[in-house]
Specification:
Elements lengths: L7 H17 L2 E7 L3 H15 L2 E7 L1 H9 L6 E5 H9 L9 E13 L10 H10 L2 E5 L2 H12 L3 H4 L3 E4 L2 H10 L4 E6 H7 L4 E6 L7 E8 L6 H16 L2 H4 L4
Parallel strand pairs: 1-2, 1-3, 5-6, 5-7
Antiparallel strand pairs: 3-9, 4-7, 4-8, 4-9
Amino acid sequence: MKFKAKHLPLWCAFCALLIPLLTNAAELKIMSAGAVEPGVEIAIHQFEKSTGNKVTIQFGTGPQLRERLASNQVFDILIAPNALINEQLKQGRLQTGISTYIGKVGAGITVRAEVPKPDIQNVDDLKKYLLAADRIIYNKASTGIYLDKLFTQLGVMDAIQSKVIRYDNGESVLMHIIRGSGNEIGFGAITEIKLFEPKGLQFVGPLPSNVQNYTSYDAGIVATSINVEIAKNFLMQMQDSRLNGQLQRVGIE
């Protein structure tokens, strides 16, 4: 179909409206710990819908985040465990006075969806199930480091050591459980377990309260970001998601 001259004024008016929208839209780059992925994805969806800005995000474990930070990757927001955020603030890599508390995530217990759900209410129940399990699966990151100490304190590490399988990240742990066999038990961030439930997991529950381990997560804006005001807007969206209970529903307390 040929473009008719009489349509030119209408076309020009349309372009005049479209160009500001295109030029004002920004791309916000986020680097985030994987344990808070479900909550961050909620905030991203709402932020993109309400602002028209685009968000690109990389998730990773604590060690992976450190590697990316060391390689000077360009991004606007860092969402990470509180200790890493404080470290970056001290090094001057994040803007001071802007960091935002996201929430805390506890460690949870999981088994395959088709096996009977174990009743683990207290530490004695946990010890019995660990000793009875065929394999015990957890990661090499902060959760796994804590579990090593916990199982040693509970006096079962020597007995279960040969049954322990560890992976670099939480996703690999959960995929092992989903594809596994026999009487296997897995451990990971509650948020990640809930995220994988539709794929073949069942969430047994959190670690017993007297041995629970929480990791707190904060968000900070990179000192060199060119999208500071947009980044602040996103952090406000994260706060809104936390305050209205959306983050709690995916396991971020």
